[in-house]
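Thread: quick sanity check before group meeting

JM: Hey all, I'm pulling together slides for Thursday and realized we never actually wrote out the predicted structure for the chain we discussed last week. Dropping the sequence here so it's in one place. If anyone has concerns about the input, flag it before I start.
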Amino acid sequence: MVKLGLQIFVFASLCPFAGLIADDFTRFRGADATGVAADHPSLPARWNDSKNVAWISDVPGQGWGSPIVVGHRVFVSSVVADEQGIKPQSGLYLGEGVRDPAQGIHHWMVYCFDLNSGAKLWQHEAHTGRPVVPRHPKSSYAAETPATDGERLFVLFGDLGLYCYSLDGKLVWSKPIEPKKTNMDYGAASSPVVHDGQVIVVYDNKEESWVASFDSKTGNERWRTARAETMSWATPFVWQNNVRTELVVPGQRVNRSYSLDGEELWSFDGDMSILVIPSPFAAHGLCYLSSGYVGDAHRPTFAIRPGASGKIALEGNFKNSEFIQWYQPQASAYNTTQIVYGDYLYTVYDQGFMTCHSALTGKEIYGKQRFSPKGSFTASPWAYGGKVFCLSEDGLTYVIKAGPEFEILNTNPLDELCIATPSVVDGKLLIRTLTKIYCLTQDEPTTAGQSPARSVGSSKK
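JM (edit): ok, ran it. Output follows.
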């Protein structure tokens, strides 16, 4: 289980924060949470570790959050360990997490890089100490993607605390989070979201689950609502629809929507799979919810209409609900979040398959198509230029022709473990690997015979 900061994108026409510009990449899967980027002539369709590389920057430690971008600054979080721990590996891990906290002193870090050059602008050590909770063997103590309102940076280390920085690296405020026991000791991973002066955090665990709002300027808690959930890691979604603005949070027991002051608006038991990881998003006026643990027979996807209230479906009777546009019982992946591009909904399965359904009706367009060469996936897909991009854990990106027929156009290798979902901004594609950030752009190729620009940040403090 890794629900990751991964994940990315911005429609230039949807920019809900007054301090932001259209090309800012503000949260997990971008400002609109769709994974779809506006077309740009500089966005590449082919790359490797030297082709179409503008720069490469080393990122010390381990973190699986996506890079976010404000103006010309790129932000990521990471945790640097003084002692070597268990190295993450690709592939499915079925069973318990690492049962004991990692050994030795750890450094919870925030890094800022220049978008145009890759130079490291600043770093800040948010916390130093020994981890007090275990984690999933493939995850990190920095699994969450940061978020921004265009003026401040919000970095969540889920079992530790929420930290607010100015964009030039000054710590503005911090709020500790009391660590709790999570299912199978997998740890936290849901990323924060920001809306209208609120930073919203979900922490589902086996002791005391909650969703809470913190004032973006002061860090003061505005509200907190208890959640009867234990096995959910999805990033919440602020759904601005034609009826109202609401907060959608899936759950293994119950899918829920909340008002912006924490009151429940609607809910239903979706018979979700035992581990809920994919994050909600909206397209065509619908909100898409899914979960698909590989060992479950029921791996559903729901398309929800706006305006619901109360309990919107009886258990198992999803097709007769006024507010469920469509439902598919076996159309969700385990870790990856789906993507709607045009009129199609694409699902990338962890084991190396893709399916396509109508985003409007749920009708299957094509069934499971295997990626070749084979690969495993945690990062969520993204799209631009009539193509859907799928990054495997081995660092190979499969470029898929968008549309009703499955076709692999080409593959792009980086040859390093990749868990984080890439980010797209201002004609640049940012891919975070285990140790680096690659900035890829078609109009800034590396000069023949020269190495890509590199900023090395090896110090911890």
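AS: nice. The chain is about 0% helix and 40% strand. Confidence is low (pLDDT under 50) at residues 1-21, 444-451, 453-461.
JM: adding both to the slides.
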